[in-house]
Amino acid sequence: MGHRGRLGLDTPTERILKDHAVCYPPVFADSALEPLYPDRLAEDFLALTLPGHALSAHPPAIWAPRLVRVLTGAAEGRPAPPASRIARSMTVLTASAAPGRWPHVGVILDQILTTSPHLARTAGNDALMALSHVDRLRTDTLAAVVATLPAPGHDGDLAEGAAAMVRRLTLQLIRESTDISVRAAARAELVEYLIDAGQDVMATEESRIAMEELENAGANRGDRADLTGAYALALHLRSTVSYENGQADSARDQIDRSVELYRACGPDAAFGLARALVDLAHTHLGEGRVQEALDVQREVLGLAQELVARSPGRHERLLGDCWNNLAVCLWRARRPDEALEAAHRAVEIRRTLAETDLQTHGGRLAESRCNVFLFLNWLHREEEAQEQGHEVTELWRRLAASNDYRFEGGLANWLTVYADICGSTPDHVDVALAAIAESLAVLGRMATRERRFSWRHGGTLGMLDESCKTAAVLLHRLGRSEESERASRIRSSLRFLGGGPPPRTFTRLALLLEQLGRDEDARWLAPWGEE
Q1: How far apart are CA 329 and CA 39, in angstroms?
Q2: Mutual angle of helices 404-422 and 358-378, in 10-degree steps
Q3: pLDDT at residue 170 above 90?
């Protein structure tokens, strides 16, 4: 019993460690008993150690600024520490510099980020959100940090933090500039980041202000030709916001007008026109006008090819998106052979991009390869489809291994789709069972992780429900009624919940995984089913 017995604790050691980890998840898989964060005492001690405060009773240490640069990875000539250590150091510094705390730490942060702006991105989403409130960051520093952040749609894990930093920069630019074009560009960028972060209310307000400012300057009347492009972009973003708010008619009118204005701007607005046309094609497709969507998508493809030819290395992502979207339009138009050819083109472009940046482009590559699998299956080219399906699975596993928080949901979703399709063919039932079992295991891990953080990512519930539905149908088809019923009971335990899954969900999921031959996953998940 050792120390636990001497402390008078009757609870088993394993349970104590598990309970502590639920409240304070360890940063590293091989560690336990993570200390309480934030640690206000440590933050104050750090602030007193650094120069710049006025408390004579606590003289700063000469070595402190250099040590801070080493710990954050900003020191020249020193190898950078692991990203997790940089994130922790930057988080503590940012907390110390919060409003009402220690302004001089904000000055030191500004100095660090001036020379190493990428450290803000390395620090992660929560640190970015906190950093957006630090008072002493100059506009140039903020602009340098924002330049390192992923563009909207590139990294969902940083979406909220990126939006917060862009909002802070936008507010400072608006305060410092009277140039309507500068203000309009700043607000437009902010709206894109707000949409990406799911902050629809704020995006609606910012897009309204941007439109109002541009209209007051005469952009909508043609009085300011130099602002026509800015007004076209504002309309495009406004249409996106309107669509997100369920205002389909307004969204359609706004995107139509945006396209019209972009065309009036000439060749210099080709990229903006292409982006607006992409959304116009999506609008057509969503409303069932497949041929109109196909016509628009072909025009966008031509624009993207011209942009790539004109500026190699800048617009390949757009070109890959265009081929992928064209493939979907052709599929909806029931032209499978052409759809397959377009999907292969998208794979070629996205594979090249992913070779240099897997984190940014890997998900899109997996999407296009999934389309190839679906089209091959539709064309009854089963052997090729199965080969493609295996390769897509391996790609998603590789992505999830590189960044589980970002890609595990994609892996689980793909495995559910793969199992559903393979399960309809007797020759591939074993593949289907293995895929749905893996999907359930991945979603089980996601559910436990998100339960620790007050169930912030409710989308996992929907994916788990869909995976259990597929499992129930597949198992029923195979005559495995007990397992099928258990999958259905897991679905019933997910209904009408205000928070995360109750313990019985994990108990049932662990038993189902055991019956599907995933004993290790079942043993890992079982303790979460304890009351």
Answers
A1: 54
A2: 10
A3: yes
